[in-house]
Fold each of these.
Amino acid sequence: MLDTNAEGRFSRWGKLAILVFCIAIFYSAIDAPAAILTVGPSGDFTTVQGAIDYAVGLGGDNEIRVETGSYIENLVIPSSMTSGFLSLLGGWDGLFLSRTTDPSATVIDSDLAGRPLRVENGGGEVVADGFTLTGGYSDSFALGGGVYVYPTSNGVVRITHCDVVNNSVVQSGASGGGVWATVYGQSEFYLTNCRISGNLASGGMGPALAGGLYVTAHDSSTVLLSDLVVEDNVVSGSHPDRNLQYGGVLLIIDDDANGRLLDSVIAWNRIEGAGHSWAGGGSLSGMGLTVRRCLWLDNESNTGNADFQLILGTVTMTDSVVAGGNTNSVLAGGHSVTIQNTNLTIVDSPGAGFTVAVYDDSQTSLFNTILSRNASDVEILAGSLNSGNNLIGQDPFFVNPEERDYRLRIGSPAENQGTNSPQGGLGPADCDGGPRIVDGVVDIGAYEGISEVFVDSFESGNTSAWTTTFP
């Protein structure tokens, strides 16, 4: 006879074991590694787009490993991707076991037919890491010659360790020769550790803007641009009455969006042609925009009309350098704007260093800033400037200004002469990323602290090689 008590015990323990097994399977599924797809001569797919299409159709979390080499393709992440995680990683070896993030190892080349990367995910997260994106060309849909980013809803896009080089958009209204990105809703865009170089936005007989980088954010979206080199990009046009704007960067943060531009170099960008030029270096604006520790160097406008290297709307900018170029340096301008500048170094302009042209109820401030070696240092065309603790028209004792090294030497009158409580507050670090306050009181200018007394071979004992930096 069957022991009913034993049967009850077996039934209870059996059910419990099945339940535990099901729970284990459920959680292992959640924590399961992403599907891994490989691309290249040694991979499962011969084209990157083939792997992308398969991954998007598969859904969930997927990693695409791209073998080093060159691929003639136009990559598209479609809006049909609404969830999950898609990671696109270049630089893999033939066994797909190790990789380099050096972008030169894996090239996506559009060969002058479209753009190398277009991302329009309707949700989920996309990562592109470790590619050279080049050869982009468009004369019909002239937005983003190298990279076009337009996530919707809550889509997230991260592009890192990429070179976006030698792409172009050619049409009236051409925008973003290198990168064009617009985010809405709660979407997010991150562009980090990238080089944007040698790109072109040409309007022909029409307007054009943003040779290197065009980024706008709206609603409650988020933008982070960090550790970028934006160099040698061009805006051009041939009509004398059209606007040619923003050789390097256009960054606009609207509504309740949040934007940051950090630790980047924007250099040697230019505007060419016959139009009305604005800002060879770029334009920054937005209530939620913060700019810190950036170098704006030798950006130019070559159309023959008066211009500025950098234009500021509503923005908070700290611990940055604006130097050189062939125009006026910085314009703080606009209607009903709030422009807060702290610990800047604005130097070596053949025109005005800092120009104010604000209207209505605008507020403009400038604190702890060096203005020197400009044809004129401060010009107020309209509105007013709230300022203090600036070093204007004096020799700051820079280490090597001819080589764009604006750190301070011993004896600098900028040492310990700033205010620790400027309007808008101090930045968290100086332009080198070091402490913003040394010796209790902040220095004036982008850099904190005094450079070494001897700059070469002091420790060698070779006294003929000692070069004192003391004036």
Note: The domain at 36-305 is CATH 2.160.20 (Pectate Lyase C-like).
Amino acid sequence: MLVTTTNDLAGYRIVRHVGVARGIVVRSRNIIAGFGAFLQTIRGGNITIYTKLAEDARHDAHEALLAHARELGANAVLALRYDANEINAGVTEVLAYGTAVVVEPVQQ
């Protein structure tokens, strides 16, 4: 699966637009991670526990996006974007979305 944040894909032409593909995950912090993050905030700097939680959530949303694009029959996703919203205290939704398309290499 080819994925790009741009609206086109160099070296390929769009054969068919399939639609919007998306992947959604909802994550919550756990008490142990929250306590560890609290200790890191005392020291200052990057809060690695939350960084890992954010990276894992984005990765899982991205994987869900790819699975949805494949279900739609796409072989590429254009204009990939991420969005995150707090649903409740300590509960965050991460959304990955883009335009699912079928592309083929440009013959030169």
Note: The mean pLDDT is 88.
